[in-house]
Amino acid sequence: MTSAAAKPPVLQLDAIVSGYDGLEVLKGISLTVRAGEFVTVVGPNGHGKSTLLKTISGLVPLRGGQISIDGQRLSGKPHETAMLGVAHVPQGDMLFAQMSVLENLLMGAYLAPDKAEIKRRLDEVYTLLPKLADRRDQVASSLSGGERRMAGIGRGLMMGGRILLIDEPSLGLAPLIIDQVYGVIAELSKAGRTILLVEENPARVEDLADRLHLLDDGAIVWSGKPAELMARDELLATYLGG
Amino acid sequence: MTDVLMAILVAGFTSGALYALATVGLSLVWGSMGMLNMAHAAMLTLGGYVAFTVITSLGLPIAIGFAGAILVGAAAGAILYFAIVRNLLKNDKSTFEANVMIATVGIGIALENAILLTYGGQPLKQPVSITGAFRLGPLTLPWQNLLIIAVVVVMMVVVSLALGRTRMGRAIRATAQNRDAAQLMGVAVNRVYLQVLMLSGALAGICGVMVSSMTQLSPPLGNDPMLKAFIMCVVAGLGNLPGAVAAALGLALLESFVQYALGARWGFPSLLFVVIAVLIWRPSGLFGRAEIRRM
Fold first, then answer.
1. Nearest by CB to B174, which of A58, A107, A111?
2. Which domains does chain B have, with CATH numbers?
């Protein structure tokens, strides 16, 4: 944490406002993620966690404030955001259902500069997620829930981005599979990846995240270390239902 | 009897090949953009007239005529994108499908009338034709039919390789399957839409040359293949390319058999009967998914 604080910010959000049609979901969120940091945003369902990540990656238009990657202001266009190194692993995986696992991974490397780099990233992903190598020729729609989640993370890693945005990786999975998915995320964090993860259950990231922000009704209401939040029963009860 | 059967098969496969070419262009645009391009017929006609002009008026070789039809078709697709589609995409996405259909009806009518004003309404003979036939024992296979089948097979292989093996093709398929996810991977979907319309226009162009080589050039040339291509798209399931090819061949063979058995006037109604049956019992098409992702 101390060493991370000295590093330059990779992602910076300054008072961002966004939403859908007439509905304002995010109401002036500011946060910073530094190189190598693991930052988590927790909050109840429907309070803007996924919208936060979608706004960063450009899927939801920004209405106010600004978002920067390595000091460069984002245009709000998703493909240009990806070019600047934002790798978004969305909720529900959003795999290309009719493509094989390998083709999904190759789509992750769509912006890779050359074939050698694609092969390097593919080897890295297969080493971290060996099951994807076994399933490489299998069509994505036939994967199990856990395999789909792993394929989504693998595709995000294939992007070789500066920061990985991960949206509720535990959603809809059995407890054993959730442990496996978080085991992979822990390895990525140990390897120095910069991660911004949103999650409903703070206990999942208690031992992983460097910092945690509590989101309620589109605004950050508390920030600190995960262990500090877990010790604050009144906060857990008020915002996360205990 | 063998002679008759072979004649029906040759006619059916030739029509099927032409329908497949028209259907794939239409289906490609629908599958990746959720856009029913009603100007596809006019783009097909345009290709036929471009080849005619290049070969007859300019006196250039037939191969240049083909290339001209492909290039002008692709250019027409690009113009359609920049003039219409790009602007409609900026509006409310929920109205895109209806708006683009109406807009392309207008473009199609305008293009057909521009061709009518330029070339007149008299039918013209497309110089891309080969006389004679290949004989194998009792079988007679006209060279013209074989040329059409060969050209269509080559085009299908090219399209299949382009979609399956290239980075551009992967981006097109990814955009068709999940537009948002494709954007997250760095795909500029507007560029993909441009590429799809150009590819579809090129296919329409070459299809126009082939269709007119079997009949004659006239301003409404593309209407019949477009109507049948639409039927085949619906039977296959809109946006399903391999299904579109299979449906085109199957329905063309059915049409040929019905025309032989019941008379030429029953060919088209037999296709309509099939499409009505499919819409009743399998509304998403024979090869279609229950849900098709649109804009």
1. A107
2. 2-281 (1.10.3470)
Tell me the per-residue pLDDT of B94-114, one tens digit each, with 9 for 90 and over. 888 899 999 999 999 999 999
Q: How many other β-carbons are positioned within 10 Å of the β-carbon of residue B41?
A: 27
Q: Which helix (H) or strand (E) holds A16?
A: strand A9-20
> Per-residue pLDDT tens for B110-153?
999 999 999 999 999 999 888 888 887 777 888 999 999 999 99
Closest residue of B to A83, CA-based?
B186
The pLDDT value given to residue B294 = 41
The full set of domains in chain A, from first to last, is: 1-85+197-242 (3.40.50.300)
Query: Do strands A211-216 and A195-199 pair parallel, antiparallel, or not at all (unpaired)?
Result: unpaired
Identify any residues that bridge with B52 across adjacent strands, giving them in sequence order.
none
- Considering only CB atoms, which chain B residues are within 8 Å of A151? none
Q: What is the mean pLDDT of residues A34-62?
A: 94
B177 in A contact zone (CB under 8 Å): yes
Nearest-angstrom CA–CA distance, A27 and A19: 9
Q: Is the pTM of this model over 0.95?
A: no
**What is the structure's pLDDT at B239?**
67
**What is the spatial distance between Cα B124 and Cα B127, in angstroms, rounded to a whole number?**
9
Please give the structure tokens belonging to residue B190: 């507007």
